User: What shape does this take?
Amino acid sequence: MLSAVQSMRRSNIGILQIRRLSEQIKRTIAWAIMPTDQDIKDKPRTGKINYTVKNMGEVLSHLKSKGVVIEKTEEYPSMGTFAWLKDPDGNQIELWEPSKGE
Assistant: This one.
């Protein structure tokens, strides 16, 4: 049986939990550890799950159709487009579509 987080990631983002690498599944996953100077006073340190996407508009449309709340979107011309949301456990997820020059 899938946990709420596994179910959300599978049905909304298309990520399957696998035990070994597969040539058929091609995803890019990066773990970003934030610098300590960005810590929030009296809050525990947290990481951020970052997924690179090819088409932010399509991904956000799909997530919204599944009832996922998108907390914020932002475009940085030199880097690309970003969006932030949380999984059912409250873990912050960042989506990034690199700018065309990246």
Summary: Residues 4-98 form a domain with the 2,3-Dihydroxybiphenyl 1,2-Dioxygenase; domain 1 fold (CATH 3.10.180.10). The longest strand covers residues 70-76. The CA atoms of residues 78 and 101 lie 8 Å apart.
